[in-house]
Amino acid sequence: MTTENRDRLLNLLKRHRELGIAEQIDYEKFYLYSIIVHSTAIEGSTVTEVEAQLLFDEGITSSRRTLQEQQMNLDLKIAYDYGREWIKRHEPITVDWLVLLSSKVMAHTGSEYSALGGNFSSAKGELRKLNVSAGIGGKSYMSYLKVPEHLAAFCEELNRRRKAIDATDICAVYDLSFWAHYELVTIHPWADGNGRTSRLLMNLLQMEFDILPTKVLKEDKASYIQALIDTRENEDITIFQNYMATIHAQHTKTDIDQYLNSTNKTTQKSLIATQKELSTTQKNILNYLKKHPQATRQEVAEALGDISENGIKYHFSRLQKSGYLKRQGGRKLGSWIVNVKM
């Protein structure tokens, strides 16, 4: 990726870590659910993230979605769950393993095929035995006869790069995962599920090296497909790597902004709740001290009129212990700092 993309992505990832977003309750789970929902949405699913959560956690199906759409999401979740555990062992990625991975992605939505090259099942992750193209008028993918050889070579090169990579170089890991995504989807080993399986492999490689997985949102679909086409036509992998780095940075920034926005709203709600917890007298004291930060207890008592100096002393002590009021400086020259908005 370019230096500009590298610097922007690293800065955003650093900010993401500093805020502790990944440590929030259930963040990892819901982030994964989002990845799954958007990956299937690119392939035509209309299941929402809320519906997916109910489906995954409670087994509650939606009457508004087809069984195939919901099963597509369930299958992909199972594939991710399996892949996440497997990749931790850092074992070699083989053709047989990719076939197994694809069989989990397509378990309940794959089809049986009868082609000139022979019969095969995409539900079992079996390699295609027919030729395919990228839609009507689209460029044809390699002959199915070449798929086994190219897939084996891909696995060999991927394993070599996995072993050689500097795991501390985050951007190098991202570039490797983007390269693997592009290469696998370009080989197009299966009749169905190539996009989902390629994005899954990309994310698993990122998880292997413990970096934030990349989401491709349904809103990215047109530009994402165009990036794949441009990369293929120009035979330049940096096009796809830079595109993926760009959208990953964009989505990470969105997550940061949403987190900060929700944090600000929580803070505002906390301030409102705090004001409700304060007594009327305490609120009056704090309001007066905001306008007269150098006032003495006697002056505050005289200003309020309905409370003694000893009463003011009691409330000062309570407000200081609760953190709503802080003294800065000495008795004669110091002032009061109010730590709550009134």
Tags for this model:
342 residues; mainly alpha; Arc Repressor Mutant, subunit A; 2 domains; two-stranded antiparallel ribbon; 4 strands
Describe this structure in words.
- It contains 13 helices and four strands.
- A hairpin with a 2-residue loop joins strand 1 and strand 2.
- The protein has helices spanning 3-18, 27-42, 49-58, 67-87, 95-105, 147-164, 170-187, 194-208, 221-234, 237-277, 280-291, 297-304, 309-321; strands at residues 112-115, 118-121, 325-328, 335-338.
- The longest helix is centred in the last third of the chain and has 41 residues, at 237-277.
- Helix 1 (3-18) runs parallel beside helix 10, helix 4 (67-87) packs antiparallel against helix 5 and helix 7 crosses helix 10 (237-277).
- The protein is mostly helical and 342 residues long.
- The protein has two domains: 3-261, Fido-like domain (Fic-like fold, Orthogonal Bundle); 278-338, Orthogonal Bundle (Arc Repressor Mutant, subunit A), CATH 1.10.10.
Order of helices and strands: HHHHHEEHHHHHHHHEE
How much of the polypeptide forms β-strand, as a percent range? Answer: under 5%
Structural class: mainly alpha
Residue-averaged pLDDT: 89
Instruction: Enumerate the strands of the largest sheet in spatial order, edge to edge or round the barrel.
Output: 1-2
CATH level-four homologous superfamily name of the largest domain: Fido-like domain
How many structural domains? 2
- Global geometry: elongated
CATH class of the largest domain: Mainly Alpha
Indicate the low-confidence ranges by residue numbers.
none
* Helicity level: 55-70%
What is the oligomeric state here?
A: single chain
The profile of the biggest β sheet is:
2 strands, antiparallel
Named at the architecture level, the CATH assignment of the largest domain is Orthogonal Bundle
Number of helices: 13
Rg (C-alpha, Å)? 29 Å
